[in-house]
């Protein structure tokens, strides 16, 4: 057996034993047996001692290891958020050109074999895809995958969450940009505030910790609610993530609308001077804080004012099957076309590796990004 194959078997054995939501006792025992078999064989011992810790195909020229994959399930959305989608909507890709469920699972399996440990399902709005529960269930069977997450606007969450949890969903991000129902309708151009709030509470009831609440802060829209969102964490185990307003096609980005994290932090510290900084993982996009004795916490996603490109570990697959190695980059590679032309697994891996290898050191900066041609956020995958 080739060294790469042994490495994959070893990763699978380790991954199954460590999975939190999907593994069963039988699977864990099988994984343990497989690991012991590898260790007892000469070839297995060699792999343990000499195998590369991470697939070279998912490591870029700056040494960043990409173990986190975001997959967009659909371009459709049941809201029209002002920072995400043009008011007139977007031209949707014909269904025949979108990834099928089997193609999604095929690509996910390939990435997991190479070292991806976390997959986040995005959109559009992923929970309007009819087979989203089945997709989560199939992803859950991939050995080595530790986390299956979803980013949702929360409209359909209460209805679907029990089945999603049973299928193996580990983590949830819910978008909510205001705590005022009337303002909600203005920002997202649709009704549904109470459904989103119900979804947040349902997620906490079902034991998700923390439930991440994504709040895009825009001057003149909701910057006056920052303190209210912090207070929202007092009695709920949520992580309110304040996201700096980012430029995408059609969202009429303007620097004057952007509220930097330092401005928000200063405002919060005036109210809660005891605010504590929390430790974070190297690859984390968030700067996290907590008011002592509050159940939840707050975080800042500082993509514009203090980028975190140096520790980026994320890759994206759009709903139409394009690989984006950078959210703000406009270069894409169609994995769908290669799949449908009969490319082998090895060929796909080399295509992915070449794209990852071309990833730039950092994005072009907020002002340059605002002038670059890129997809609207809804067509990228949030």
TrEMBL record:
It comes from the Eukaryota. GO terms for biological process: Mo-molybdopterin cofactor biosynthetic process. Signal peptide: none annotated. Its cofactor is [4Fe-4S] cluster. The keyword Chaperone does not apply. Pathway: Cofactor biosynthesis; molybdopterin biosynthesis. Residues 61-274 form the Radical SAM core domain. It catalyses: (8S)-3',8-cyclo-7,8-dihydroguanosine 5'-triphosphate = cyclic pyranopterin phosphate + diphosphate; GTP + AH2 + S-adenosyl-L-methionine = (8S)-3',8-cyclo-7,8-dihydroguanosine 5'-triphosphate + 5'-deoxyadenosine + L-methionine + A + H(+). Coiled coil: none annotated. Keywords: 4Fe-4S, GTP-binding, Iron, Iron-sulfur, Lyase, Metal-binding, Molybdenum cofactor biosynthesis, Nucleotide-binding, S-adenosyl-L-methionine. GO terms for molecular function: 4 iron, 4 sulfur cluster binding; cyclic pyranopterin monophosphate synthase activity; GTP 3',8'-cyclase activity; GTP binding; metal ion binding. It is an enzyme of class 4 (lyase). SMART domains: Elp3. Its EC number is 4.1.99.22, 4.6.1.17. Pfam families: Mob_synth_C, Radical_SAM. The keyword Magnesium does not apply. In the C-terminal section; belongs to the MoaC family. In the N-terminal section; belongs to the radical SAM superfamily. MoaA family. Isoform MOCS1A and isoform MOCS1B probably form a complex that catalyzes the conversion of 5'-GTP to cyclic pyranopterin monophosphate (cPMP). MOCS1A catalyzes the cyclization of GTP to (8S)-3',8-cyclo-7,8-dihydroguanosine 5'-triphosphate and MOCS1B catalyzes the subsequent conversion of (8S)-3',8-cyclo-7,8-dihydroguanosine 5'-triphosphate to cPMP. NCBIfam families: moaA, PRK00164.2-1. Isoform MOCS1A and isoform MOCS1B probably form a heterooligomer. This is Molybdenum cofactor biosynthesis protein 1. It comes from Cyanoderma ruficeps.
């Amino acid at each position: 057996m080739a060294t790469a194959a042994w490495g994959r078997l070893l990763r699978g054995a380790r991954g199954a034993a460590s999975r939190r939501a999907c593994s069963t006792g039988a699977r864990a025992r099988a994984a343990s047996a497989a690991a012991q078999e590898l260790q007892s064989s000469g070839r297995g011992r060699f792999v343990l001692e000499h195998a590369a810790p991470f697939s070279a195909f998912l490591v870029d020229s700056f040494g960043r290891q990409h173990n986190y994959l975001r997959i967009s399930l659909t371009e459709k959305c049941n809201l029209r958020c002002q920072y995400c989608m043009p008011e007139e909507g977007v031209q949707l890709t014909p269904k025949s050109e979108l990834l099928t469920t089997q193609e999604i699972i095929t690509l996910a399996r390939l990435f997991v074999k190479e070292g991806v440990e976390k997959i986040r399902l995005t959109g559009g709005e992923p929970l309007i895809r009819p087979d989203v529960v089945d997709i989560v269930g199939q992803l859950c069977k991939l050995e080595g995958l530790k986390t299956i997450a979803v980013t949702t606007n929360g409209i359909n969450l209460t209805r679907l969450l029990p089945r999603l949890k049973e299928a193996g969903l580990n983590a949830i991000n819910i978008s909510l940009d205001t705590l005022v129902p009337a303002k909600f309708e203005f920002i997202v151009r649709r009704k549904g505030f109470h459904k989103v709030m119900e979804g947040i509470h349902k997620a906490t009831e079902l034991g998700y910790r923390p439930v991440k609440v994504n709040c895009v802060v825009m001057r003149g829209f909701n910057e006056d609610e920052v303190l209210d969102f912090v207070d929202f964490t007092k009695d709920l185990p949520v992580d309110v993530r304040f996201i700096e307003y980012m430029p995408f096609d059609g969202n009429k980005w303007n620097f004057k609308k952007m509220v930097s994290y330092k401005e928000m932090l200063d405002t919060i510290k005036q109210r809660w001077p005891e605010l504590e900084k929390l430790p974070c993982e190297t690859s984390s996009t968030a700067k996290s804080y907590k008011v002592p004795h509050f159940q939840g916490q707050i975080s800042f996603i500082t993509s514009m004012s203090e980028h975190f490109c140096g520790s980026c570990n994320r890759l994206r697959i759009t709903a139409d099957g394009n690989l984006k190695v950078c959210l703000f980059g406009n270069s894409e590679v169609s994995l769908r076309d290669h799949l449908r032309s009969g490319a082998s697994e090895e060929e796909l891996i080399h295509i992915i590796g070449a794209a990852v290898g071309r990833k730039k050191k950092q994005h072009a900066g907020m002002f340059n990004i605002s002038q670059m041609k890129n997809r609207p956020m809804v067509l990228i995958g949030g």
